């Protein structure tokens, strides 16, 4: 049997990023992500008007599961998420810009940071795929309940509390990075088209809105640890409902829904024009 060392892994990843069909499947992941964010925005509107729901990927996928042909759509979504996850894994191995003829150098601190972000996104997309599979099999549960349950178990030990604090800090920093990326317009570097007002506006609104929600979710994890209240650590759904309980909460929820939906629209732009 031929040995498959580190060099072989890099070559295999490089071959994958050069495969046209794999790229099409990965771009489908952006489409699916866009649909999920628009569905989350719909759930946020329902929460704003008092109809309830879970404003996260489980709530979005649950809405898909309840429709005619929902199971087929969920399997398709899972496949698209897996393709996107493997694409990010390949980027983490060979470099985010490896397939660009005149792309930035993937060596040094900047390249290492890009690889780290690609690997983090791979984990997120694998998690999305797993959630979609569970709903397709009829075994889907609320992400907020799962997060609260896991938090309760971790709070039973000092190491678990430390892990939660680390998670909260990471999620908060990711949220801040999204806000920075939106305000700075750096997201345009991810696209293969020239700068234009419509795309830039969509990206700014989408990234800032998602960043704010993620930052709140990270803060709530810290609050959950301090208060020993696992119910606070419920992810994006908890962050959205925290917005709703604030002064002028209904208005904030409508604004959040517009922002998250706009991020979904930007995901469609990524599906067409993302550098791959």
From TrEMBL:
Q: Which InterPro entries match?
A: DUF1206
Residues in DUF1206 domain copies: 28-94, 120-184, 205-273
| Membrane-spanning segments | 28-49, 61-87, 118-137, 158-180, 204-226, 251-274
Q: Which Pfam families match?
A: DUF1206
> Can you say what this protein is called?
DUF1206 domain-containing protein
Keywords, in A-Z order: Membrane, Transmembrane, Transmembrane helix
């Amino acid at each position: 049997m031929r040995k498959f060392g580190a060099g072989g892994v890099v070559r295999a990843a490089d071959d994958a990023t050069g495969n046209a069909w794999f790229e099409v499947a990965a771009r489908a992941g952006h489409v699916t992500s866009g649909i999920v964010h628009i569905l989350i925005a719909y759930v946020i509107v329902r929460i704003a008007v008092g109809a309830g729901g879970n404003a996260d990927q489980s709530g979005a996928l649950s809405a898909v599961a309840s429709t005619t042909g929902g199971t087929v759509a969920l399997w398709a979504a899972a496949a698209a998420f897996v393709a996107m996850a493997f694409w990010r894994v390949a980027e983490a191995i060979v470099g985010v810009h490896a397939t660009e003829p005149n792309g930035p150098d993937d060596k040094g601190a900047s390249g290492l940071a890009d690889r780290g972000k690609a690997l983090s996104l791979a984990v997120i997309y694998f998690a999305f795929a797993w959630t979609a599979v569970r709903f397709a099999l009829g075994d889907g549960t609320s992400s907020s309940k799962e997060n609260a349950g896991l938090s309760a178990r971790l709070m039973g030990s000092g190491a678990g509390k430390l892990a939660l604090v680390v998670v909260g800090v990471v999620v908060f920093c990711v949220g801040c990075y999204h806000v920075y990326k939106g305000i700075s317009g750096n997201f345009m570097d991810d696209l293969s088209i020239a700068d234009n007002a419509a795309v830039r506006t969509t990206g700014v609104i989408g990234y800032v809105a998602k960043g704010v929600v993620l930052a709140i979710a990270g803060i709530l994890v810290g609050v959950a640890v301090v208060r020993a209240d696992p119910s606070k650590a419920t992810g994006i759904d908890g962050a959205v409902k925290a917005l709703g309980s604030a002064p002028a909460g209904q208005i904030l929820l409508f604004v959040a829904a517009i922002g998250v939906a706009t991020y979904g629209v930007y995901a469609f732009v990524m599906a067409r024009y993302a550098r791959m």
